[in-house]
Design brief:
The structure is a single chain. The protein is α/β, with parallel strands linked by helices. It has a domain of 171 residues: Rossmann fold (3-Layer(aba) Sandwich). Helix content is 39%, strand content 17%. The protein has eight helices and ten strands. The protein has a six-stranded parallel beta sheet, sandwiched between helices. It has a four-stranded mixed beta sheet with strand order 8-5-6-9, with helices on both faces. Strand 5 and strand 6 form a beta hairpin. Helix 2 packs parallel to helix 4. The chain binds iron/sulfur cluster (SF4). Iron/sulfur cluster binds next to helix 7 and helix 8.
Length: 261
């Protein structure tokens, strides 16, 4: 150990705790036939995903929207490696000011102000893209929480992410950071409702011109189990494992870094 001790560097402590958590989780996920792949860095996780696609020669590669995937550079890594040779389905591509590409002709930096019919018409194209992700060869997604006992838990507004996690794509790669690890299902749902969901609404307000400002969790910092029409907490999914013949379907990639919301 170097002296004097650097009290600000906790990387060794985190690494040891992560190692112990992974020992627990590996058994618990793999007995449920969820393949478990721990990595120390986001770069290693991104490299693993490109190898996964190459090894299985997958043609249709799909994504859901995920801060974690952005932080790991996975959208860019997959695109730069496979853009010319595979079909990449990413319905969540955005303009420089955070709007979906279908709204690229709208004023830069301003909230959308389209008539409702026109808005719905354009959003239908985004939804069509989401539907295509459900029959891909591999769907690459994030998750809101995982448990030490081996479950993956996510909440979804449209449902594309949780639908694809459960059925459709031949393979699913779920990428999470260590901050998503929860003791059990109860803790996972607490995390989702009181941390992930409000932060995600705030992200959409600030980065994507959405109008989630009046949700109770956004205004008051915790979930009030609301039934707001703007709430995207409509679909909560718990992945508890795969059946025997699907043992190569779900792959959990976990990184010893804080990633996503
Ligand atoms: S249920 Fe309502 S209050 Fe709770 S996290 Fe979702 S939007 Fe916020």
């Amino acid at each position: 150990m170097d002296y004097p001790i650097d009290e600000t560097d906790l990387s060794n402590e985190y690494a040891l705790h992560f190692e112990h958590q992974c020992e627990l989780m590996k058994n618990n996920f793999e007995r449920r036939r969820i393949n478990f792949h721990p990595f120390q860095t986001r770069a290693e996780a991104a490299a693993y995903i490109n190898c996964f696609i190459k090894e299985r020669n997958l043609a249709d590669i799909a994504f859901s929207d995920s801060v974690t995937l952005h932080e790991c550079g996975i959208y860019k890594a997959v695109e730069s490696e496979f853009e010319k040779t595979r079909n990449i389905i990413n319905p969540f591509k955005r303009t420089a000011d955070g709007k979906y590409i279908v709204f690229a002709d709208q004023p830069l930096g301003e909230k959308l102000n389209l008539p409702r019919d026109e808005y719905y018409k354009r959003m239908a194209a985004v939804v069509e893209g989401m539907r295509k992700t459900l029959i891909s060869d591999v769907l690459i997604i994030g998750a809101n929480a995982i448990t030490l006992s081996g479950e993956i838990v996510s909440i979804d507004g449209s449902g594309n992410r949780v639908a694809g996690m459960m059925f459709g794509p031949r393979h699913v790669i779920v990428v999470v950071g260590r901050n998503k690890i929860c003791l059990n299902l109860e803790a996972a749902l607490q995390r989702i409702r009181n941390v992930a969901a409000p932060l995600n609404y705030i992200r959409h307000n600030m980065k994507h011109h959405n109008r989630y400002h009046e949700l109770p969790c956004v205004m008051k910092g915790k979930c009030f189990d609301c039934s707001s029409p703007r709430s995207a907490c409509k679909k909560i999914a718990i992945m508890r494992g795969e059946v025997e013949f699907n043992a190569d379907r779900t792959h959990l990639v976990i990184v010893n870094e804080d990633l996503g919301l």
